[in-house]
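Appendix B, record 7
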Amino acid sequence: MPFRYTPLNNPKSDLRVITIQCGQISDSVRCILTEHAMPALKYQYQALSYTWGDERRKVPIIIDGEEFLVTPNLEDALRHLRRSTLLEAVKQLPVWIDAICINQEDSEERDAQVRRMKSIYEQAEQVVIWLGNYNEPSDETFRLNMSKWKMDRDCQHSNNMHVWLQLSRLLYRPWFERLWVIQELAVSRKAIVQWGNLQTAWSTLEKAAKFILRPGEAALPQYIRTIFPLLGAHRVTQVALESMFNFDTQNILTILHNTQNSKCSDPRDRLYAIQGIVEDNQDIEIDYSIPVQQVYRNWAVKRIRRTKTLDIFSACADSSRGGDLPSWVPDFREPFGQDKPLW
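Structure tokens (predicted):
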């Protein structure tokens, strides 16, 4: 029997979370979905940051005894988050996951919950960044230990090419390309990176990336230094706000420029996904019932009227290419290419 949602009592304040029932890795994934009022749930749950993957492919899990379809990547995440024993499971915090905890078919609920996305990740005890399963069986023994890359200045593993390649494969996971993760990471109290059954603090991965980008005088063989530009460390800085170039929370155009190469399946999310990380967000109105052209036009009109400037013209280079927007309305479906606002 297919799963049916019970409407939230108040989508503006209530949340659903799932409890993952214990089981072995090969068992079917079973969860219990419960509704809670905030702020009673504050810091009493964890939030998942992940990529949906191919939405055309779905696999079943069981929620409250009924079948629920999710993407294979999410099902894989649930399997690896699941505890194997009841004793371990009762100690685990429930999880908030957008694809499950928001009724995606209810546009009013979806709008209300997306408006709260910042606070949902902000008020989680921790954010779990799911990068996917292992690349190969040997990854089970992989540990993101700072000493392996000579970051503690004294280790015996820095000459091991395989270790560096393992790290690189991690950095090239699709999660680093996703637009929504920038906000999810930026507002988190604590972020944990997980791939397969392995976990490490986000700060450890970030420190590793910064070392690769600027190794300084570390005593590394030339053949190791040669591969550093290819390892993908720059992808970490692309999702970390403090590493973005010319980023100003008072000017939304700077974050729009910095994130124009990040991926999102819905072009309206070019604005919606960054609302929580800029103070200059008064002109964004989240409403998935209106087409993307109207979303961009409404935002442009409000911004021009509020700021009494034409600074959005710096983002209008390609607005007329598709022929469905006025030339004065930025089209964020296309890169706009300006390094700095013109006004």
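Remarks on this record: Residues 149-157, 338-343 have pLDDT under 50 and may be disordered. Strands lie at 14-20, 30-37, 46-49, 59-63, 66-70, 95-96, 126-132, 191-195, 198-201.
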